[in-house]
Amino acid sequence: MKDKGIQFNLPSLETPEHILEYSNYYYKLSAYRSNFPKDNKGKYIHLDFQHLVDLASIDMQLRYTLLQMTLDIEHFLKTKILADITKSQEDGYTIIDRFSQKIGKSSESFFDHIRYASRHYNYDLYLKRKNDLSIWVLFEIITFGEFVRFVEFYYEHEHQNEYIEIASIIRYVKNIRNICAHSSPILIKLNEQTLTHDRQSKYIKLFVGKVPNISKHTRKKRLENQRIHDLSALLYCHSTYVLSSGVRKKRNDELQLIMQRIKKNIHYYNKNQLLQSIFDYIHKLVDFIVD
After folding, report:
1. Which has the closest alpha carbon to 179: 250, 234, 113?
2. 41-92 residue pLDDT tens
3. pLDDT by residue (tens digit) across 155-176?
């Protein structure tokens, strides 16, 4: 780290060696250096080891809350879809055949991750329903990735126009869910601009455009980063599709705690315009959905 220009000047209650042995590991901790500039010799500028430790702590707290938010979205979307199907003329079985045909997968294959694991929590469900798969059972056993494909199918092929918005943005929720579930860093490579204007969700652009004090220039710049774009999509989906005010309040309270955690050492980033801008952007989104 010293060879890369990382300094060890900021005080800490624990030594770097102790942190790297008991709190975090080098590969993950060093990933946050991607948010700091380098000089013409390739060494990092204004980067201290404690900056990396602080970002890792913020990121962990953020991931835990975002993962819960993706679970909330999944639950309330499943509830809504099942209610709509139950009230319709659909019998709950033939729709499985249409979905299976669309994605090129047999209905039996949805049980693949269960049928060969007799200790799986849903193994009894497999034994009882393996030859009689309904939409209600499917929603108990499919992965989130398969559920995303079902939502897209439900809009595109079942003529459910009220799902046009969520069908086009739920894949971004999946991106955040995957990275959180695998405990991978989110707040890295925040200066990358890999998402061109035509690949950004129009619904997310409209959402961010309504947030006070986020300029058009800032919105454009921030949404060009895939991670920030998908994070924005998740916050929008949760505030829109999670219907329980109690659940929303709980997550909003957790998000506010994260904002407070960011402020704790915000002076660390006085010389890092990128991180200051990112934190300010996230803070304004959180304040908007909480209000």
Report:
1. 234
2. 999 999 999 999 999 999 999 999 999 999 999 999 999 999 999 999 999 9
3. 988 888 899 999 999 999 999 9
Rounded CA-CA distance 141/131 in Å is 14
Instruction: Give backbone dihedrals phi and psi of 288, rounded to 5 degrees, phi first.
Output: -65, -45
Cβ atoms of 218 and 277 within 8 Å: the answer is yes
48 DSSP β-pair partners? 7
DSSP run (H or E) holding 257: helix 245-264
Question: What number of other Cβ atoms are within 10 A of residue 33's Cβ?
Answer: 19
Task: For 83-119, give the DSSP string.
Answer: HHHHHSS--SSHHHHHHHHHHT--GGGGGHHHHT-TT
**Helix, strand and coil percent figures for the chain, each rounded to 5:** 70, 0, 30
What span, in angstroms and rounded, lies between the C-alpha atoms of 136 and 156?
20
Name the pTM for this structure. Answer: 0.92
